[in-house]
């Protein structure tokens, strides 16, 4: 069965965005881009909430074509164009969307059907609202967290509405020169 891995930047105090959704505190550099690029190149499915999908869709399809495109822009733009995209949204329709499936109802059933299909792991990018829904339904199998060296004090937390403990097993860590530390966990269902 395929696994859903949540990929998220997080502050030291557990927030994924500021109070108004701001993400200007997130540190990324070529070292992180290279590391992430290797990992996501193995994935064939990206999962987004509507807001994150719209941000991605507004940038990545043409990012690699710009004269100022970085190596990361080119590589990620290529990956984005070929990866199958799943969007959790109650308002979007998938008519005319290339390589994109919209899930608007029966979330648990629809996600479990996708997890049963052949393919690599499903990468859930950002999307705090979608992540909260999937956590509450016990559908996330791992967390790939990039802990940024900042305390925000307030904002959008990663973990909300959790009624039962989620036991995690640390697979590995990676420290980056910019101060970000990656923590790679799987959910321990035993």
Molecular structure report:
This is Dihydrofolate reductase. Pfam families: RibD_C. Residues 2-180 form the Bacterial bifunctional deaminase-reductase C-terminal domain. With 190 residues, this protein is an alpha/beta fold. It has a single domain (8-116, 129-160, 172-187), classed as Dihydrofolate Reductase, subunit A. Helices cover 29% and strands 28% of the residues. The chain is built from five helices and ten strands; from the N terminus they run ββαβααββαβαββββ. The protein has helices at 30-40, 50-63, 71-82, 107-116, 128-136, and strands at 4-11, 15-17, 45-49, 84-88, 100-103, 122-125, 142-148, 156-157, 168-175, 181-187. Strands 5-4-3-6-1-7-10-9 form an eight-stranded mixed β-sheet, sandwiched between helices. Strands 2-8 form a two-stranded antiparallel sheet. α1 (30-40) packs parallel to α3 (71-82) and α2 crosses α3. The protein is globular. The model has no long low-confidence stretch (mean pLDDT 91).
Give a topology summary.
Layout: E1 4-11, E2 15-17, H1 30-40, E3 45-49, H2 50-63, H3 71-82, E4 84-88, E5 100-103, H4 107-116, E6 122-125, H5 128-136, E7 142-148, E8 156-157, E9 168-175, E10 181-187
Parallel strand pairs: 1-6, 1-7, 3-4, 3-6, 4-5
Antiparallel strand pairs: 2-8, 7-10, 9-10
Indicate the low-confidence ranges by residue numbers.
Answer: none
Per CATH, the superfamily is Dihydrofolate Reductase, subunit A
> How does the helix and strand content classify structurally?
alpha/beta
How far apart are the termini? 16 Å
CATH uppermost class: Alpha Beta
Which topology does CATH recognise? Answer: Dihydrofolate Reductase, subunit A
Largest sheet: 8 strands, mixed
- Average residue pLDDT: 91
Query: Number of DSSP strands?
Result: 10
Radius of gyration: 16 Å
Apparent shape: globular
What is the N-to-C order of secondary-structure elements (H for helix, E for strand)?
EEHEHHEEHEHEEEE
Binned, the helix content reads 25-40%
How many individual domains?
A: 1
Looking across the biggest beta sheet, what order are the strands in?
5-4-3-6-1-7-10-9
What is the architecture at the second tier of CATH?
3-Layer(aba) Sandwich
Strand content: 25-35%
Report the total helices: 5
Protein name: Dihydrofolate reductase
Domain Bacterial bifunctional deaminase-reductase C-terminal: 2-180
Pfam family, one: RibD_C
InterPro entries: DHFR-like_dom_sf, RibDG_C, Riboflavin_Biosynth_HTPR
């Amino acid at each position: 069965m395929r696994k859903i891995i949540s990929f998220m930047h997080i502050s030291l105090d557990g927030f994924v965005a500021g109070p108004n959704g701001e993400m200007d505190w997130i540190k990324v550099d070529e070292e992180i881009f290279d590391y992430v690029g290797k990992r996501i190149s193995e994935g064939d499915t990206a999962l987004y909430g509507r807001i994150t999908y719209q941000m991605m869709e507004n940038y990545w399809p043409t990012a690699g074509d710009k004269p100022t495109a970085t190596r990361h822009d080119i590589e990620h733009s290529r990956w984005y164009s070929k990866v199958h995209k799943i969007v959790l949204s109650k308002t979007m329709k998938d008519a005319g969307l290339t390589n994109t499936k919209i899930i608007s109802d029966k979330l648990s059933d629809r996600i479990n059907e996708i997890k049963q299909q052949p393919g690599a792991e499903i990468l859930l990018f950002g999307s705090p609202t979608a992540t909260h829904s999937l956590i509450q339904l016990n559908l996330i199998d791992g967390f790939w967290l990039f802990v940024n060296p900042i305390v925000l004090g307030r904002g959008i937390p990663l973990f909300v509405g959790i009624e039962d403990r989620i036991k995690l097993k640390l697979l590995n860590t990676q420290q980056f020169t910019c101060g970000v530390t990656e923590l790679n966990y799987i959910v321990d269902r035993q």
